[in-house]
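Fold sample X.
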Amino acid sequence: MPKIEEAQPKYLQIAHYIRDQILRGDLRPGDEVPSERQLAADWNVSRPTAARSLEALSHQGLVEKRQGSGTYVRRLEVNRRARELYGRAKQTGKIYTPGEYAVITSAGWLEAPDYVAEALSLAPGTRAVHRRRVTKDESGPIALSTSWFGADVAEHAPKLLDPDRIREGTLMYIEGMTGRQGSYAEDRMCARLATEEELADLELVSGSAVLIVHHAVYDLRDRPLEFAEATYPPGRWAFEHGYPIG
């Protein structure tokens, strides 16, 4: 019979909490993370447990210990996934970290491609609202994405049709305008060669491979709220949860 998994060890719970802060951008490269003493006091654990959590973060390549100084966030090139963006938006009211910004390259009604219509439970050939954006930081383009919304969402959320940024993020905006709360999301990922348009937007050389993520968000009644296709350049990595073996 299947078994209910036991709760994660305390040191991993602490490590995952700090890791999420790093991936959301709440802790930036060069920021000092809490010391063993502070973690032990904040989480009511022993010093060895706190030390083990910092060691786990170090093994994951997220932090580095500086002798006689402390433990600091390393400079990372990370593809922040939707879950990190949502977490930051809910906590801070802003979806992007300092230095990041999005340029909306197009917005409005278009006939939804078949795979988009299927994801949004629309009839083939149905028009839907799209928002296409290029996300950048000081290094240049870091992601290209297009979000799609059915008419049932768009009629209550007029900003989706405007080429201006929605600072709190589209999902937070949609939840506020429609009263429909995002309940869960599903991601599907693959890699392929970039199209000519993607090469231009992400400033890549011909023949570059990209990571593609299809992201669907559903409300509490399992109705689709948003479908997004995101394209990430090579050379950046996406963090995944660890899991037990055996």
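Fold sample Y, listed below.
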Amino acid sequence: MTPVRLTRPRRALDIVVSLLLLTLLSPVLLFLAVLVRATSGGPVLFRQRRMGEGAREFTLYKFRTMRQGAAGPGLTAGSDARVTGTGRLLRRFGLDELPQFFNVLRGDMTLVGPRPEGIALALRYPPECQWVFRHRPGLTGPCQLRSRTDALLLDGRTDPERYYLEVLVPRRVAMDAEVLARLTPATVLLFVVRTPWYLVSAAWDGSRRSADRLGGDAEAGTGGGRS
């Protein structure tokens, strides 16, 4: 598959932003590494082969959020029992993704692009969606920002992988096409700035909805009136 190479300005932006944020966030990265190790034991990082630019495989790095050795499907639903308590906190704020700045620095990924897909699922993409693997996957992007919502859509599905491939993948690829058609260094920076704000806002809204539901349950239990 013929890759779509990054322009020099975008690659330069990847390097500068990754180096800057890895330097600034180094105390946070160290703290999170200690937290993962102390609360769940085992390795701090999760490594997985993903589909990269031009359908070339690479190793993606994340902070480990699941129990060590936990087996299960390649997709993570919103209520997946394999996720640890610390892992849920990291996922809520997108902190488990921070090691991917090393992937961006190495050139495996870019700051903004399609979501990096696991190999097994990538090979099962509908033919009309496989063009997305010509592009370098991104640390953030429209699909990454919908990951939490999409994970909730998988809850209760009898065949979550089929639903993902037949319903969510075409939807995601369409969003990627729209963004890739107008992606410039300026829009990349806009995504980078907006992503932390989006993650914090989404986590806050989720906590508030959970609190509202708990309040409603309490009232029902007295005869009155998510993770």
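Sample Y note: The helical segments are 8-24, 26-40, 85-92, 100-106, 119-122, 147-154, 160-180, 185-221.
Also: The radius of gyration is 18 Å.
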